[in-house]
Amino acid sequence: MGLLVAVLVALPTVVAALPADDADVPAAELRAVVLTSEDVGFSGYAVSAGGLALPVSERLTDVADLFSDRTLMRVWWRGPEEHRVDVVSGAGETGVHRDPGGTWTWDFEAGTATRGTPASLALPTPPDLLPAALGRRLLSEAADEELSRAGARRVAGRDALGLRLVPADVASSVGRVDVWVDPASGLPLQVEVFAEGAGLPALDTRFLDLDLAVPPADVVAFTPPPEATLLTAPDTEELIAQAEERAPDVRLPRELAGLPRRTFQGVPDAVGVYGRGVTLLAAAPVPGRLAGGLREALTASPDAVTDELGTRVAAGPLGLMLVDPGEGPAYVLTGTVTLDALADAARRLPGAAS
Question: Which of 71, 85, 210, 283 is the residue whose CA sits 20 to 30 A from 312?
Answer without folding.
Answer: 71
